[in-house]
User: Fold these one by one.
Assistant:
Number 1:
Amino acid sequence: QVQLAESGGGFVQPGGSLRLSCTVPGFTSRNCGMDWYRQAAGGQREWVSRISSGGYTAYAASVRGRFAISRDRVTDTVYLQMNSLKPEDTATYLCKTIDNGCDYWGRGTPVTVSS
């Protein structure tokens, strides 16, 4: 079983920034991609962003222009840089590997945006 290690969540004031990371053993060698999701308390899971195995990136309309996804092939890590955070971004953020048989979920890292 592949263990995904998420980190970077926390508490931030509106307008602030956080960078989430998700490290996946074998991410590069298996040519995986990754999706980030988020789930607010009592809400449905919402897709946030994607970086495909080929490097294609995509964003939900609600975060486009504020969030940026990237990957480090050396450390098998995907980053989600979150800027201009809003209270409505408050949620648990989860990473999920995709493409080429990679199908694993992380446990999530909480993000709270509040004044």
Number 2:
Amino acid sequence: QVQLVESGGGLVQPGGSLRLSCAVSGFTFSSYWMFWVRQAPGKGLEWVSSIHPRGTTYYADSVKGRFTIAGDNAKNTMYLQMNSLKPEDTAVYYCNTVLLGAAYWGQGTQVTVSS
């Protein structure tokens, strides 16, 4: 059974850092594209970052230079290190993948950036 479970969200002041985790089960995450997507209050889904099975990473312009996506094959876990956080980063963050044409999502983790 495919499962994705995010954790690591919370309340942080502007300029602070958080590291989100996405623990996966039911498949080997390093064999598939993996994504971080977020949804700010009252807005639609926004792609944040991706990691290719070979390790190439991609970022939205809004987070480039501040966020880093990475994976730990031994733990079957993906991470999103978020530095220099801004109020506009406030959102629910989801990890996501597509396996054999089906999309799988975690339950999301809330990130709130506020003083």
Number 3:
Amino acid sequence: EVQLVESGGGLVQPGGSLRLSCAVSGFTFDDYAMSWVRQAPGKGLEWVSGISWNGGNTNYADSVKGRFTISRDNAKNTVYLQMNSLKPEDTAVYYCNAARFGINYWGQGTQVTVSS
């Protein structure tokens, strides 16, 4: 059974930090590129960041560049998103995604709320 389980979300003040994790099972993790995608209240899905199968390539949306860092540990079947200097507009449900040749797997999401 394919599972992607996000964790690490919560309530944080503006300027604070959070580290999201996505632990996967049920498929060969290091065959897949991984991404983080978010959905703010009342809005559509927004791609946030992606990382190649071996971590050699990373990409970020302009809205998070310089503040967020994506990484992965293939030995632990886990992808991370370190989020620093959080802003209220980062408030969203954050989903991890695994993709390979048109196959996509999604987690259930974790809520991040940035508010004073």
Number 4:
Amino acid sequence: VQLVESGGGLVQPGGSLRLSCAASGFTFSRYAMTWYRQAPGKERELVATITSAGGSTDHADAVKGRFTIARDNAKNTLYLHMNSLRPEDTAVYYCHHRGNWGQGTQVTVSS
């Protein structure tokens, strides 16, 4: 299993980013997928989950209405669309599949 996140960076408050997670080594379309994040000095927390076909999603209260999880099973890729970013969204973002983690991508929200 390999999960490779990308798309992070430095963005101003109110800005947007799209994170991607390229998955390989398993049948991506058969499994639900999840985004987590870990801010400095804090526990890793669940951000959003999507079912295998993408028909159902769930988002943490802290990001609901601002972030959207999505997937493209033809491309074996998971996405996290992030809008209206806030400084408290600063964290390393990880995609997760059945105990497997990517290396993470850093998101920094600062003016």
